[in-house]
Amino acid sequence: MTKVLPEVTVYTGPMGAGKTTRLYGKMGELTHLGVPYEAYRPGVDVREVVIAPRGYVVSANEALTPNCTAVEALGDIPVEELVRRGIKTIFLEEWFMFGFDQQRRPISGLYREIMGRWALAGIERVYAAGLDQGASGNQFGLVLDARRYGAKVVVCTARCAYPVNGERDPKCGRVARNSQIYDVRDNRVFDMETLPDLLPEGLRLNDRYRAVCTEHLLLPSEQTKPFDPMQTE
Ligand SMILES: [Zn+2]
Question: Is the dihedral of CA 161, 163, 169, 173 positive or negative?
């Protein structure tokens, strides 16, 4: 019997929480078991900053998996062909970025539509990794819908990197489930209420992200400043 939706597992959490590591670990597991799969990531090159959701981090050691294919949209993944080849498992990296169209507008209803189509085609399992709202402040519709439609959501945690002694070590170090964006020039944290859903055009060289605990995510107003979408440099 065909399932209505595939079994979806989402690895999420803040910077440095090991989401991608978990995803790669799962790939390794399936490879070991002889289970075939294909892996995809959004084709938009965030290093060129054509589009970058707030909270997106380009880590220095970012390495693409050798078999990870870039596609523009989830609808471009040739599921029928995959299933014909016996592939019923799909991996998605940075998958939250698939939730926006070319004009950076969120695509509503995408999760249900795509997963329904994939299930119908015979896709049985999907593993996805990426930021969620808690980790970025963004309303990622895909992630919200994944929860709504019963995906298994694995929240990976990091250590709070908030500098408790000014900018000197030690860092707070408590369990961190969220990320925070701040200005490296003055180390001021941006007021979450003022953050746009998607970053404005252009590379924001002074923005930095760090994993934070709940206490350091919710700072008093004197320790925050409004986000300036026009920041240039
Ligand atoms: Zn903290």
Answer: negative
Fold type of domain 7-156: Rossmann fold (3.40.50)
Find out whether 15 and 57 touch, Cβ atoms under 8 Å.
yes
39 forms bridges with which residues in the sheet?
A: 68, 91
pLDDT, tens digit, for every residue of 122-144? 999 999 998 766 555 566 778 88
Domain boundaries, the chain: 7-156, 159-225
- How far, in Å, is the centroid of ligand 1 from the Cα of 182? 15
CA of 22 to the centre of ligand 1 (A): 24
Ligand 1 centroid – CA 10 distance (Å): 25
pTM: 0.79
Neighbours of 215 (CB within 10 A): 11
Ligand 1 centroid to residue 213 C-alpha, Å: 4
- Ligand 1 centre to CA of 194 (Å) is 21
Distance 164 CA to ligand 1 centre (A): 8
- pLDDT tens, 35-53? 999 999 887 654 443 344 4
Q: Residue 199 corresponds to which tokens in the numbers above? A: 């970053």
The strand pairing partners of 126, in sequence order, are 8, 90
Contacts of 59 by beta carbon, 8 Å cutoff, 6+ apart: 15
Find tokens 């993944």 and name the residue. 77
